[in-house]
RNA sequence: GGCCCUAUCGUCUAAUGGUUAGGACACAAACUUUUCAAGUUUGGAAUCGGAGUUCGAUUCUCCGUAGGGCUGCCA
């Protein structure tokens, strides 16, 4: 059988990390099986869909390296196809026009809940053969004793009673199909073999199965993946933080996000793993059954691992710091979790700003700091290799061997920070001239 | 309310009818050290509850409980 899967985002928002995780599993599965991936924008809700979200989705997918085969389909451009099938459904009495108002349906629903009955709309217009109406519904037998069941590749056997479904809506009119109808028609038309989608679609599946059956088409294989959760274990949404992939672009490497998302629901052989290795290892049946919390701390760690491995040129480009000297890249990447944190190291390419009291090490007196800096400034031109022993000597001769008394003021003079890499590392990057200048500025600052 | 899904450290998870229930992140401590970072070592931390099956259940079954999803003329 030819393997064919789909990316079916709805352009009613930016690309969501949960949707992306589902797409990653589709992608891994397709790549491993030399299958095809269809890109299909589900924009049947014209009110909420827009081109900006479309662009965000495509760009984010591209950024992550999630590619697809063939053209980009839009459901809004396929209304003729849906119309053809809607007419067929109507003619064959598999669907009918319903003329109940929203208010009537609300009352019905309210009464059902109060009576502890299953919520569903069993339409009384079914036999009326209306020419038109408010909405088109599939006719479902409310007295059926049939159990619709399917074998989910990740969840196992799932069953629903047909009688509980009710006559569900599939189109606003002949030219405006709703989700349930458009997906099934498209999945049939595009010969989708595996539908790998979020857990939240499980309860839609029996409806879809009924449409496949009405068209006498074979069922695809269903695989429902658990949702990505927020810290309170509910479906990940904006109140938990950034959900758009594009919100991660400035701080995270695409490989790191991909790696992290892949682990939210699947266990690969090692924590840091490439796409290629993931493709080789992936098995649909091994996708976990329960939802996973999006833990940003783990993402940060994975990201830091990828940053460390970046070549200098690549890092400077991605972090957008062309002025950073190549020699400085290593000491910086070792300390970063997020790309934008590079701004904490701006003293490597521009003069630091700081308050003079930061220069003080423990109980040091101003004269002592001055002396320490003066001594250090004499070392500015010393060969890097010998710099360490030279500074140690100063500590020994002037401060009873307290190296902090030398290193601390020096580091602050160079970086303006309480926390920074070894001053010798910084001197290596700044060079003797700049080093001397910064020490002198520190001395001046101390006097003021 | 109805239907459906799920349940191992704080988080991601491993294991399997028999293990001292393992790892990673996070956290804490130690080492290193002028301060960070990195690294190394160590530590605390979990099988939701109750029945049943069994010589033995974290694992299998059932019942609870909890959480989640769906319940649209959204997708």
From TrEMBL:
Motif ('HIGH' region): 9-19
Class of enzymatic activity (EC top level): ligase
Domain of life: Bacteria
GO (cellular component) term, any one: cytosol
Ligand binding (ATP): 238
CDD domains named in the record: GluRS_core (cd00808)
Domain Glutamyl/glutaminyl-tRNA synthetase class Ib catalytic, first and last residues per copy: 2-301
Swiss-Prot/TrEMBL GO biological process terms: glutamyl-tRNA aminoacylation
Function: Catalyzes the attachment of glutamate to tRNA(Glu) in a two-step reaction: glutamate is first activated by ATP to form Glu-AMP and then transferred to the acceptor end of tRNA(Glu).
Protein name according to UniProt: Glutamate--tRNA ligase
Gene: gltX
